[in-house]
Amino acid sequence: MSLSALLFALSSAFAGPHGPSAAPPNRIYAPGAPSAIIEATITVSIVSPTLKHWGVPAAQAVFVPDSDQSASARAIRSAADPQTLCEAIERAAGRDPAIAAAPVDGDGDLEHRSGDVARLSFRLEVSGVASSTQGNLSLCSDPIIAVVSRGTYPNERFERPEGHRLSWQERRISLHPGQKTRVNGTTSLDASQW
């Protein structure tokens, strides 16, 4: 398949809205207490000499309070790689009321090249925060869409590697009733083995 045809097919399949996402409030502490807000931007970079284009279609962010000692919370905190973290977040979804979650709009239009950056922004509202609370803020992406080249001209061909995700964690986030917490993070991937 030619590069232009592959880019068109992938762009059409993953087209969607961009920008910050807002999730419904998560009531995980004390009903009637003020909300706490997390506003975050995670800057992402992917590099490889064979990487032609890439994008992140979507992601999921979660806040796990230190007071939560459930199996789901411990699995998220201890995750050492993207696959483990993504699996832990998926298992926790809807099962642990103490874990607040928000969807994250991605940038899946394949406009990025090797070394470019994408920014994943989201807003997570945690309602019912009765007192100052610390916890872990984590993010896991959906499978990254990408185009890589194999071989050299005139035998160069283009392929789409599958199953690769990115993750990010900030292990010490403080929330305060009625206040906004701003978080900026960075993460990068070496795609040379894709």
Count of helix runs: 3
Structural class of the secondary structure composition? alpha/beta
Mean pLDDT across residues: 85
Fraction in helix: 10-25%
Strand content: over 45%
Quaternary form: single chain
The string of secondary-structure elements, in order, is HEEEEHHEEEEEEE
Characterize the structure shown:
- This protein has 194 residues and is an alpha/beta fold.
- It has one domain (3-189).
- Helix content is 16%, strand content 48%.
- The chain has three helices and eleven strands, in the order αββββααβββββββ.
- The strands form two sheets. Strands 4, 5, 7, 8, 9 and 10 form a six-stranded antiparallel beta sheet that branches. Strands 1, 2, 3, 6 and 11 form a five-stranded mixed beta sheet that branches.
- Strand 8 and strand 9 (157-159) form a beta hairpin.
- Helix 2 (71-78) runs antiparallel to helix 3 (82-92).
- The chain is elongated.
- Mean pLDDT is 85; it is low at 3-8 and 10-27.
